[in-house]
Specification:
Radius of gyration: 24 Å
Distance between the termini: 56 Å
Largest sheet: 5 strands, mixed
Strand content: 15-25%
Structural class: alpha/beta
Number of strands: 12
Order of helices and strands: HHHEEHEHHEHEEEHEHEHEHEEH
Number of helices: 12
Oligomer: single chain
Amino acid sequence: MDFKQLQYILAIYEEGGISKAAEKLFISQPSLSKCVISLEKQLGMKIFDRSVVPIELTPFGKAYIETAQQILNLNDDLIRRISDIKNVDTGLLRIGTTFTGASQKLPHILPKFIEEHPNIEMEIIEESTSLLEETLIKGNLDLILLNGPIENKKIKFLPIKQEKLYLVTQPGYFNLNGKEKNFDNIYRKYNLNDEEFIIQHQGQKMRHIVDGIFEDYELDPKIKFEMRNINAIIKLCAEGVGLAIVNESIKDSLDYHIKPDFYYLPKRYDIQTGVGYRKDGYTSEAAKKFLETINDIKNSERAAYI
């Protein structure tokens, strides 16, 4: 099995063409083209349909790409297994997290993990939920920290904490005359289609959740602008720039110069924060230790609550 060939074909698929793939692989375009032609001749089937721009996979090409990814993942898993056997309490842990998770989940977990396993090297990648899931499936991450649920059947999701969602506004912006501060009371009294919302970008989990809430309530509010940084969104809401929907851990973790008003959403919109890993892939010893740390934290918090 020629792993280099597999990597070349995957690069062409991911980059959408031979030219960009050659650039990424630091080889000449003619050499890469020759490699593809030679492989297709050897297989007796076309992998790419080069009559369209950008090039597309043939039906056989789709099967080849799926299998190539599985083979490369298995090879990577084997290398990780060997490394784990050789290095019992060392190794590399690659964690992916959303922009929100980087500021809210990691500071809650990393200090304890680093204290218990100082010799494990770590790489932290911050990206949108969709890109994190894709990178995990490709075997380029060990774990991802994000809001669930995860729909991808190739990813196992372990919940860490259940959180409520809140509408956040400038203090005193709405007046419920003593009624409970919840979203439904706001919805019944005010026309939220007249309001301007600050929302997160497409591909971020909270954006997907918020879009679903708008749809459920048949809302089509004005969008002031889109931002990735949820902390900044809350502070802008406190200043009266717009409204937003945020999760509980964000709400409870900030130091406020101006404290906004929060109105909780119905329980059906509660979310679970958690950790995901490849369902059928190898879980490295470093990743297992990280999961153990999360479990220890959950147990200690549960004991403190009891």
